[in-house]
Amino acid sequence: MSDTPLLKIEHLTKSYRDSSSGIEVLRDLELSVEANEFLCILGPSGCGKSTLLRCIAGFEEYEGSVKVNGREEREPGTDRFMVFQDFNQLFPWKTVLKNVTYPLSINRKGDKDEIRRLALEALEKVGLGNFANQYPHQLSGGMKQRVAIAKALALGSPIILMDEPFAALDAMTRSGLQKEVLRISESEKSTIIFITHNIQEAVILGTRILVLGQHGQILFDRKNEMERPVTPASPGYGELWEQLHQALYEGRLSSEL
Amino acid sequence: MKKKESHLRSILIRVVYVLCLMAIWEYVARSGMLGPRSALIFPSLEQIAAAFVKNFVRGYAGTSLWIYIINSMKLLLTGLAIGIILAFIFSGISMVSYTFRKIFDFTVSICDLLPGIALLPVVIIIFGVRREVIVFLVVHAVLWPMSRNMLDGFSSTPRIYVEAGRNMGLRGMRLILGVYIPAAASYIVSGLKSGWARAWRGLISAEMIFGIASSPGIGLFINQMRTNMNNAEMYATLLVIIIIGVIVQYGILRPIEICTVRKWGMSK
After folding, report:
1. What is the value of pTM for the model shown?
2. Ordered strands of the A159-163 beta sheet
3. Chain A: closest CA distance from residue B255 (Å)
4. Domain B51-262: CATH class, spelled out
5. Residue A107's domain spans which residues?
6. Which residues of A touch B (CB under 8 A)?
7. Complex ipTM, two decimals?
């Protein structure tokens, strides 16, 4: 491997031109993400963390550049697969299995049998092997999110973007899914960028944690070297929690000014 | 179990209702309470039943009602197919081109309000008295409501579906086929329903106004029964028209709905 990071963001500036004030959501943001990192991004509401993810995914227009393995990307692509917060990201007109095989067949990831095998394998990994022939409306919110993750796994996307995927779930389901994502991130060779506003979630999941302030200013950027699985009883947990809380609090203050 | 019970009950109510109507009809027919015209307005059920059979066996002028039905259905299906395909094509292009969408949307709004039968004189001048006229009217009947529903369906496609589609690399035509059209399924189904209803009415009306000797249809048949004062046959033909409507509604449209939007949990 050369020195090029997997994902390199340079001078990223995003403003909504249509709003009269021309609000700059992100200003001159610089960020590099290495392969196999689990990057958690924390930030107060309105700091532009979701916008950052949408820029990386290619859904937004912006100034600056987003490079994957040194190649500039501006359109959505399966090398940066997004798992949305919205449960409705699955197509209701396709079964669970078809929802997973569809992106594979569009992107010609093998013949029919191979695609089916990959999809079933991915569904097994998220514990939904028995639900392959159900329709999304027959699944709970947590299960739908797992299918969305299975899509990314089956595609083998090098970068998986997750925009608060568990924010709308109840605490029990959420913690179950966190464990699963953790397990997946350790066994699969993918890089995950995970947006959350929950400090605990960031500490449990992230191998690197970022706190964004106003205009996407990076207030905190540190590797999380705590031994996994991280629990509130892990040494250093309280300290890290406190630091993140402090950084978030500053971020909120700066955005209120 | 409860559901089944209420289902049986609703069937029972309908059966009793129809039996009551038939009883009243038969009473009026036999009592002659409407004077000398009674037998014309209310032929007895027995006569109507006999006429029903006769329509198919002997028909009119040596041609069975079957032939008339088949002729009508041919024109209807041709028109429906053309109308539906055009609706898909035009609505699809509307999603790609802003200018086309504005023009098409405007056209749909105008034409949707125009009863097809009012166009008949114009169409006859253009095509002459030919079967194409009826096909044209059926296309007119189905194209606009179908397009209106599709345009509405496309524009109300949740953004999350579109983004999920783009996320997996869908673009342009493939995004329309893979996301917009299935996402608009419930709109397309209701477009089909209203399109069919209008086409069926339009077809019968047009056939009644002018029958084409080369392709006589049900509308022509019922009109001939009227001119010949074959009133029992007239009522029997009405029954046929109702039965065809019911078959299409419950035998075709309903199953389409159940196999798509209901199964997918997308009913409006």
Report:
1. 0.85
2. A80-83, A159-163, A191-195, A38-42, A208-212, A218-223
3. 16
4. mainly alpha
5. 90-155
6. 57-59, 75-78, 81-82, 84, 86, 88-93, 102-103, 106-107, 135-138, 151, 155
7. 0.89
